[in-house]
Write a structure and sequence with these properties.
By secondary structure, the protein is α/β, with parallel strands linked by helices. The protein has 16 helices and 14 strands. The protein has an eight-stranded parallel β-barrel with strand order 5-6-7-8-10-12-13-14, surrounded by four helices. The structure holds D-xylose and calcium ion (2 copies).
C-alpha cells in the first residue's frame, strides 16, 4: 500500500523553483568544505512524532489522522506505520530513523508480551531496511509514559520500577543493535523531582548512573559499538530534571566514570528551555569532545514549553552548523524531533515540515561554511586573544608561573594594556552580510 501516493519524491530544484514539493537548498550531492551535503547532514525521522503525533494537546484531541488505514493499537497499525514511515523517508531522502520501544508497537499488559510484539515488528523493520538501505540513527526506551514511571525510572523510589526500566532498556538495546543503530539515547523525562521534601537526591543520582553503567556493560556485551547519549533538558514533564543542560550532564558523566561511553544529544528546544542558546549548548558539548548527535527542532520564544517545531530560523541553523563544522562533525546525525502544528493536519503538511527542516539546515550549512571561509570572525577572535600567544600569557597557559610572579608582573606593569573592543555589532554585521548580502 502506498500511503503518500499523491505526493512526489522530493528533489532538489534550486532556489528559484516554485514547486512546493522540491528542495531549494538541500542538494544532497553538492560538496561543501570537502564533504557532500548528505554526509554533513545525516537526517533522521523521529518515529514518535512523524508516525504517531496527531496534534492533540491538553485542550483537545487529535486533528491529524495517523491511522494509516488501520485500527490504532493493533499490530496491523504498527506495520502500517513501518510501511508509511519507510515510504515517507524514501520520498524525502531521509536516510535514518530514531525510535522509542513503545513507538513501534502498542505496549501490552506484560513485558513478555510487549517483547514478543517488538520481536515481530523488528523482523518486519529489518526486512524493510534491507530492501531500502535505510538505517537506524538511535534507539531508546520510553521510561516516562507508563504510570509506573510517575516517580522516575532510574531515579524511582521503587527498586521494582528500576528493574522494569532495566528490562525495557535491555530490550531497546537489543533492537538498536539488531537495526545497526549508531547510538542509544537516555532522555530522563521523569528523572528529576517535584519537591525535595520527598526526595533523596543523592540516591536518585547514584542510581541513574548505576542504570547507565549496567546499560553500557550489557550493550558492549552484545556488540553495541556506538555511542550512548544523554539528552539534556531542564524541565518538562518534571519541575526539575537532573540532566539540566550540557554542562550539568558532562559533570554527571565525569563524576560517575561514564565519559568514555557517553556523548550528548543536544536538542535546540531543550537548550532554550534551559535559558541557553542552541549554539551555547553545542559549544559546551563540542569543547568537551562530547558533541554526539542533534535533535533538530526549535522552540517558540513566547512559549515556555517544549513546542518541538520544525527548524525555520536560519540564524539558528547557521550557528548550529558553524559549531558542528568547528567540532569536526557529529558521530550521530540530525533527528527531526519535531511535529507539525495542530492545525497543519494533512499528509502534505508532513512533507512541508521535513522540506522546511532540511532546507533550513542546508541553508545553515551553506552559510556556516561561508562564515568559516570568509575568516573574519576567526581572525577577530585570534587577535582578541593574542595576549596569550607570547610573553606572560604564554607562560600562564604553559603553567610556568606562580601567583607570586603574576602579582609582581602586575605591580611592575602599573596598568594593563587596553583589552580592546569586543566589536559585537561589527561581527553581527558580518553574519548578516553573509546571510543576506550574497
Ligand atoms: C522530549 C525528548 C524526547 C527524546 C527521546 O522532550 O525530546 O523525545 O528525544 O526520548
Ligand atoms: Ca528530543
Ligand atoms: Ca523536545
Amino acid at each position: 500500500m502506498e500511503y503518500f501516493r499523491h505526493l512526489p519524491k522530493v528533489k532538489y530544484e534550486g532556489k528559484d523553483t516554485k514547486n512546493p514539493f522540491a528542495f531549494r537548498f538541500y542538494d544532497p550531492d553538492r560538496v561543501i568544505l570537502g564533504k557532500t551535503m548528505k554526509e554533513h547532514l545525516p537526517f533522521a525521522m523521529a518515529w514518535w512524532h512523524n508516525l504517531g503525533a496527531g496534534g492533540s494537546d491538553m485542550f483537545g484531541t487529535e486533528t491529524a489522522d495517523k491511522s494509516f488505514g488501520s485500527m490504532k493499537r493493533t499490530m496491523s497499525h504498527a506495520k502500517a506505520k513501518v510501511d508509511a514511515g519507510f515510504e515517507f523517508m524514501q520520498k524525502l531522502g531521509v536516510e535514518y530513523f530514531c525510535f522509542h520501544d513503545v513507538d513501534l508497537v502498542p505496549e501490552a499488559e506484560t513485558l513478555a508480551e510487549t517483547n514478543a510484539r517488538l520481536d515481530e515488528i523488528a523482523d518486519y523493520i529489518t526486512r524493510k531496511m534491507k530492501e531500502t538501505g535505510l538505517k537506524c540513527l538511535w534507539g531508546t526506551a520510553n521510561l516516562f509514559s507508563n504510570p509506573r514511571y510517575m516517580n522516575g525510572a532510574g531515579s524511582s523510589n521503587s527498586a521494582d520500577v528500576f528493574c522494569f526500566a532495566a528490562a525495557q532498556i535491555k530490550k531497546a538495546l537489543d533492537l538498536t543493535v539488531k537495526f545497526g543503530g549508531k547510538g542509544y539515547v537516555f532522555w530522563g523525562g521523569r528523572e528529576g523531582y517535584e519537591t525535595l521534601l520527598n526526595t533523596d537526591m543523592k540516591l536518585e543520582l547514584d542510581n541513574i548512573a548505576r542504570l547507565m553503567k549496567l546499560a553500557v556493560d550489557y550493550g558492549r556485551s552484545i556488540g553495541f559499538t556506538g555511542d550512548f547519549y544523554i539528552e539534556p533538558k531542564p524541565k518538562e514533564p518534571m519541575k526539575h530534571q537532573y540532566d539540566f543542560d550540557a554542562a550539568t550532564a558532562i559533570g554527571f558523566l565525569r563524576a560517575h566514570g561514564l565519559e568514555r561511553d557517553f556523548k550528548l544529544n543536544i536538542e535546540a528546544n531543550h537548550a532554550t528551555l534551559a535559558g541557553h542558546t542552541f549554539q551555547h549548548e553545542l559549544r559546551v558539548a563540542g569543547i568537551n569532545g562530547m558533541l554526539g548527535s542533534i535533535d533538530a527542532n526549535q522552540g517558540d520564544l513566547l512559549l515556555g514549553w517544549d513546542t518541538d517545531e520544525f527548524p525555520f530560523d536560519v540564524y539558528e541553523t547557521t550557528m548550529c552548523m558553524y559549531e558542528v563544522i568547528k567540532a569536526g562533525g557529529l558521530t550521530g546525525g540530525f533527528n527531526f524531533d519535531a511535529k507539525n502544528r495542530r492545525p497543519s493536519n494533512t499528509p502534505e503538511d508532513m512533507f512541508h515540515g521535513f522540506i522546511l527542516g532540511m532546507d533550513s539546515f542546508a541553508l545553515g550549512l551553506i552559510k556556516a561554511a561561508r562564515l568559516i571561509e570568509d575568516g573574519r570572525i576567526d581572525e577577530f577572535i585570534k587577535e582578541r586573544y593574542s595576549s596569550w600567544q607570547a610573553g606572560i600569557g604564554a607562560k600562564i597557559t604553559n603553567n610556568e608561573v606562580t601567583l607570586q610572579e603574576l602579582a609582581e608582573y602586575a605591580e611592575k606593569l602599573g596598568a594593563p594594556k587596553d583589552p580592546g573592543s569586543g566589536k559585537q555589532e561589527y561581527l553581527q554585521r558580518i553574519v548578516n552580510d553573509i546571510l543576506f548580502g550574497e
